[in-house]
Design brief:
53% of the residues lie in helices and 0% in strands. It is an all-alpha fold. The relative contact order is 0.13. Keywords: Cell membrane, Cytoplasm, Membrane, Metal-binding, Transferase, Zinc.
Length: 404
């Protein structure tokens, strides 16, 4: 098996339970010393990021690798630290993203919906109501296209789920039903119909009543694939209903569980026998969110057990040679431990998140590869900063642009 991770040098929590005391107390609150180190590293990396962004692609408006992603980071920093300067930086980057919309895609991560949604929230926080409403109006103009678009995929990066996230993001950030819930439920309905249709055409209904493809492949992970779509269909209030949850979503989730390797990692796509990738986008680090949501919805201990096994995979194989990013790096993998900690309150998971943070705070010292967009949110330094800020409030943490 090709080795894509560096050896984990850290002693695990079970072996030295007292070792966590330096990082957090018995209530899960980071110690002042460790939180101070994290905050200092955030400031240091922000300085490097800002310098690096001077040579970034001026036309990239996206959340994934462009200006809207940097705006989202500064929104997060404003929420974490309360400094108005962070909100002003968010405004600067949000406005820059609005100047380079492409009209090509309508998703949060890789399309125009992300910049519009992020800008709406920035304007809302600044009490610039008219500009926020203009962004919301432009965002909703995509709704009919998403509902009727022939050949449109259903996945997160470029498909219907990516637009659905944008609408839910608005309601969460505005803390009210700014987008009528029926808009979200209508998209869920189309996604269900699409998944049933493909499953029937593929003669795969007995194994997985819902199937989704991207470029003629059935991807498993959340970026382009099944685990991400099922995660959203499992969300309460999205209109799936108990009957279809049991008839359509649950057996589809169970089929994905069946696909896992003996190592407890997951394939990149159905039929792939290579146990290689341990990324948020492909492998156990992304599948875990589906498993945890299935546990919350159905209450079956096996889902939690499978999720805990994902955590073991990430602890053993999650310090990636690819670097420190969210999509396919250490920061994205570290969110696995925060997700497990939020549900179980087991300090082992918070300890592991802190260890991966220690690795991230040695940014650039491990000989990892330099990403194509080295300062962006999902491929570069901005994502690492986002994770470090989330670690300061672990019970409020959410994988950006994905976790509900």
């Amino acid at each position: 098996m090709e080795v894509r991770a560096l050896k984990n040098p850290y002693t695990d929590y079970h072996e030295t339970p007292g070792g966590a005391q330096y990082h957090f107390d018995h209530r899960g609150r980071l110690t002042a010393d460790f939180a101070g180190r994290v905050s200092d590293k955030i400031s240091e990396l922000l300085f490097h990021m800002e310098n690096g962004l001077k040579s970034a692609d001026p036309r990239d408006c996206s959340v994934y690798t462009g200006w809207a992603g940097i705006a989202l980071l500064y929104l997060h920093l404003h929420r974490t630290f309360g400094e108005i300067t962070f909100l002003q930086r968010a405004l600067d980057y949000a406005c820059r993203s609005l100047q380079s919309l492409t009209g090509r895609w309508a998703t949060f991560l890789c399309g125009d919906a992300g910049p519009l949604a992020v800008a709406a929230v920035v304007f809302h926080r600044l009490q610039r109501r008219q500009e926020a409403d203009e962004c919301l109006s432009r965002l909703l103009h995509y709704h009919q296209f998403i509902m009727r678009g022939e050949g449109l995929p259903d996945e997160l990066l470029f498909g219907r789920i990516g637009y659905l996230f944008s609408l839910n993001f608005i309601n969460q950030e505005f803390e009210q039903e700014k987008i009528p819930i029926q808009y979200i439920q209508q998209i869920s309905e189309v996604v269900l119909t699409s998944g049933e249709s493909l499953s029937k055409r593929s003669c795969n209904q007995e194994q997985s009543p819902l199937l989704y493809e991207w470029h003629q492949k059935y991807y498993v992970g959340p970026a382009h694939g099944l685990a991400g779509i099922y995660y959203f269909l499992l969300q309460p209030g999205f209109g799936v209903g108990e009957t279809r949850l049991l008839k359509l979503v649950k057996p589809s989730v169970d089929y994905l569980c069946y696909l896992r390797f003996p190592s407890r990692n997951y394939p990149a796509c159905i039929g792939d026998t290579r146990d290689l990738l341990v990324h948020w986008c492909h492998g156990a680090p992304g599948v875990i969110y589906m498993l945890l949501q299935a546990y919350k919805v159905f209450g079956m201990d096996q889902y939690l057990a499978d999720a805990l096994q994902c955590g073991e995979v990430v602890w053993q194989r999650g310090l990636l040679k690819k670097g420190y990013s969210l999509c396919h790096g250490v920061a994205g993998n570290a969110y696995v431990f925060l997700a497990l900690y939020k549900l179980t309150h087991d300090p082992k998971h918070l300890y592991r998140a802190c260890m991966f943070a220690e690795w991230c705070m040695d940014y650039g010292k491990h000989g990892c590869r330099t990403p194509d967009r080295p300062f962006s949110l999902f491929e570069g330094m901005a994502g690492t900063i986002y994770f470090l800020a989330d670690l300061l409030q672990p019970m409020k943490s959410k994988f950006p642009a994905f976790e509900i």
